[in-house]
Amino acid sequence: MSGFNIIVTLLSCMGFMALVGYISYMKTRGGVDTKDGYFLAGRGLTGTFIAGSMILTNLSAEQLIGLNGSAFGYNLSSMAWEVTAAVSTIIMALIFLPRYLAGAFSTLPEFLKDRFDDTVRRMTVVLFLVGYTLITIPSVLYSGSIAVLRLFDVPALLQMSYEASLIITIVIVGSIGALYAVFGGLKAVAVSDTINGIGLLIIGILVPVLGLIALGGGDFLTGMDTLANTNTEKLNAIGGPQDPVPFGTIFTGMILANLFYWGTNQYVIQRTLGAKNLAEGQKGVLFSGYFKVMVPFMMMIPGVIAYHLYQDQNLQTIDLAYPTLVKDVLPQYMAGFFLAVLLGAVFSSFNSLLNSAATLFCLDVYYPMKKQQVSEIKLIKVAKITSVVIAVFSFVTAPLLMLAPEGLWQIIRIFTGFYNIPVITIVLVGLFTRRVPALGAKVAIVFHVIAYALLQFVWKIEINFIHIYAILFFIELAIMLVIGRIYPRQQEWKFTRKPEVELKPWRYALPSAFILFALIVSLYLIFSEVGFVNGVSAYLLPSLVFVWISTFALCFISDRKWKLKYENSLAKIGV
Question: pTM of whole model > 0.85?
Answer without folding.
Answer: yes
